[in-house]
Design goal:
By secondary structure, this protein is mainly α. It is built from eight helices and three strands; from the N terminus they run E-E-H-H-E-H-H-H-H-H-H. Helix 4 runs antiparallel to helix 5, helix 5 packs antiparallel against helix 6 and helix 7 runs antiparallel to helix 8. The relative contact order is 0.06. The model has no long low-confidence stretch (mean pLDDT 80). Pathway: Protein modification; protein ubiquitination. This is BTB POZ domain-containing KCTD21. InterPro entries: BTB/POZ_dom (IPR000210), SKP1/BTB/POZ_sf (IPR011333), T1-type_BTB (IPR003131).
C-alpha cells in the first residue's frame, strides 16, 4: 500500500517490494508511472494486506526497480533464458531502453554460442578427416605389406640358399674363393640379411679367415 511519506509496497507475483512513488514515476511513459498517476491506483488489484498486486514473475522485478532508481541500465543477467525473460518483462512495463539492452545481450549470447558451436563442428570435421586419412594410410600400408609378402618369402628362400653356398665356400682358399664369398655376402646384404651374424659365424668356425671376415662388416654400410 502507499503511505503518506511516499513509500510504496508492491506485491509482485507474491513477493513484496518496497520503494517510493518518486522512483516509480521516474519514467513517465512506463506502466508503473501510469499506475501510480491519477485514479488508476485506486482501481488496482490488491492483496489481503492492501498492497497493489502485479501479476508478474518477481524474479526479474529487481532489475526493473534498479533501472528506475538509477535511471541507467543495471548489470544484466548472464544466462540467455534470463535475458530473454527480462526483455519480456521490460516490454510489459514499457521500459524500452531496458528491453532493448536485454534483447541485444541475448542476441550477443546466441551469436557467441553459435560461433562456439561452429568452431566445435569444424574441429570435429577436421578430426574425422584426420582419422579417415590415417585409416586410408593404414589400408594402403596393409595392401603394400600384403603385396610384398611373397617377395619377402622369396628373399628368405634365396638367403637360405646363399648361406648354404657361403658355408661351402669358406672351406676354399685363394682369390677366387674370397671374391665369391664377397659376392655372396653382398647379395645377402642386398636382401637385408644379418651380415654381422654371418661374420661372427665365419670367425668362430674358420679362424684362418679372421682378417678377411673383418672386411665384410663394411659391405652393408
Amino acid at each position: 500500500m502507499a503511505s503518506s511519506d511516499g513509500l510504496v509496497t508492491l506485491n509482485v507475483g507474491g513477493k513484496l517490494f518496497r520503494t517510493t512513488r518518486a522512483t516509480l514515476a521516474k519514467h513517465p511513459d512506463s506502466m508503473l508511472a501510469a499506475m501510480f498517476r491519477g485514479d488508476m491506483l485506486a482501481s488496482a488489484l490488491r492483496d489481503e494486506q492492501g498492497h497493489p498486486f502485479l501479476d508478474r514473475d518477481p524474479t526479474h522485478f529487481p532489475f526493473i526497480l534498479a533501472y528506475l532508481r538509477d535511471s541507467r541500465l543495471p548489470p544484466l543477467p548472464q544466462g540467455l533464458l534470463e535475458l530473454q525473460q527480462l526483455r519480456v518483462e521490460a516490454e510489459i512495463f514499457a521500459m524500452a531502453e531496458l528491453a532493448e539492452a536485454a534483447g541485444a545481450a541475448a542476441a550477443a549470447t546466441v551469436a557467441r554460442r553459435q560461433a562456439a558451436q561452429a568452431f566445435e563442428e569444424r574441429r570435429a570435421a577436421a578430426l574425422r578427416a584426420t582419422e579417415a586419412a590415417v585409416a586410408a594410410a593404414q589400408l594402403e600400408y596393409d595392401a603394400i605389406k600384403a603385396a610384398l609378402a611373397p617377395l619377402r618369402v622369396a628373399q628368405l628362400a634365396e638367403q637360405a640358399i646363399l648361406y648354404q653356398q657361403l658355408s661351402r665356400e669358406v672351406e676354399q682358399e685363394g682369390p677366387a674363393a674370397s671374391k665369391l664369398r664377397n659376392a655372396l655376402l653382398a647379395r645377402l646384404c642386398a636382401l637385408g640379411a644379418d651380415v654381422p651374424a654371418a661374420e661372427a659365424q665365419l670367425r668362430a668356425t674358420h679362424p684362418q679367415l679372421q682378417a678377411e671376415a673383418r672386411q665384410y662388416s663394411y659391405m652393408c654400410r
